[in-house]
Amino acid sequence: QVQLLESGGGLVQAGDSLRLSCRASVSVLSFDYMAWYRQAPGEQRELVAGSTAYGVTYYADSVKGRFTIFKDNAKNTVDLQMNSLRPEDTAVYYCKVTRQELRSTDYWGQGTQVTVSS
Question: How far apart are CA 54 and CA 20, in angstroms?
Answer without folding.
Answer: 21
